[in-house]
Every structure is written in C-alpha cells, then in structure tokens.
Amino acid sequence: MNAKPDAVHLFTPTTLFICGGLLIWAADFLIVYVVAAIACAKGFEALTVSGLPLVALVGTALTLLAGIGTALLMRIAIRRLRATGESDASVRFIYCLAGSIGALAAIAIFFNALPAWLLATEC
Predict the structure, then answer these.
(1) pLDDT truncated to tens, each residue of the chain (123 aa)?
(2) For the chain, how far is it from start to end, CA to CA, in angstroms?
(3) Could you tell me which residues come within 8 angstroms of residue 111 by beta carbon, excluding any fewer than 6 positions away?
(4) Closest to 102 in 3D by CA, of 91, 94, 113
(5) Shortest CA distance to 6 belongs to which of 80, 82, 98?
(6) Mind spelling out the 3-state secondary structure of the chain?
(7) pTM of this prediction exceeds 0.85
(8) Which of 55, 84, 93, 105 could pair with 25 in a Cys bridge, judged by C-beta atoms 3.0 to 4.6 Å apart?
(9) How many C-beta atoms lie closer than 10 Å to residue 114's C-beta?
C-alpha cells in the first residue's frame, strides 16, 4: 500500500526548487554587501583592477553568476512545464511558480548590481 512518492512531490526538494531564485538572490545580496562592507572597513574602496573599482568588479562578477544560476533555474522550470503538458495541475503550478519567482529574483538581482554600477564607492 505504501507507494514511493514521486520525486516532484517530495516537500524539501520541491520547496528548494520553488524558492531557488530567491535563495540565489539572497546569497548574491549578502555577498555583494559583505564585500563592500569589508572594503570600506579595511580601506580597499579605492582599490582598482584594470581601471575598475574592486567593489564594482566583484559585485558585477557575483551578479553575473547569480543571474546565470537564476536563468538556469528558470530554464529548467520552463522545460519541465512544457514537458508536463496537460497532465497534472499541481505539477504545472509548481513549475509555473518556480519560473515566476525566478523571474522576480532576476529583477532583484539586477537591482542589487545598480549601486555598484552607478554610484562611486564612498564609505
């Protein structure tokens, strides 16, 4: 009588998949601002690499990584959504929700990078 649950319906992986975009954004937010805070605390805010401020360079690199990770997550969600067809409404909802939250997280990741790109680092 005990059937093995489908991998899609397990709570923890499903929740992590749905919230993946927000988790990537939160990690990006934390690391970008910690790097900026450390640079200000240690006096590295004026340090440049190839003519670019170090804080802006690190922030841009982290933003690109976070954007790529979120795009991959959204691609997986869209691919699985298309593959499910009309079969199960709850499974379609999970993939649609993961893709939508990923899109919102991508916008938040972009806004994370704006201070590093538009403002000079002043502590």
Answers:
(1) 454 545 446 889 999 999 999 999 999 999 988 888 888 888 877 788 888 788 888 888 999 999 999 999 999 999 988 888 777 888 889 999 999 999 999 999 999 888 777 765 666
(2) 64
(3) none
(4) 94
(5) 80
(6) CCCCCCHHHCHHHHHHHHHHHHHHHHHHHHHHHHHHHHHHHHCCCCCEECCEEHHHHHHHHHHHHHHHHHHHHHHHHHHHHHHHCCCCHHHHHHHHHHHHHHHHHHHHHHHHHHHHHHCCCCC
(7) no
(8) 105
(9) 11
Cβ–Cβ < 8 Å for 53, 45: yes
Which tokens hold the place of 45?
Answer: 């805010």
| Dihedral angle computed from the Cα positions of residues 16, 17, 20 and 21, in that order, rounded to the nearest 10 degrees | -150
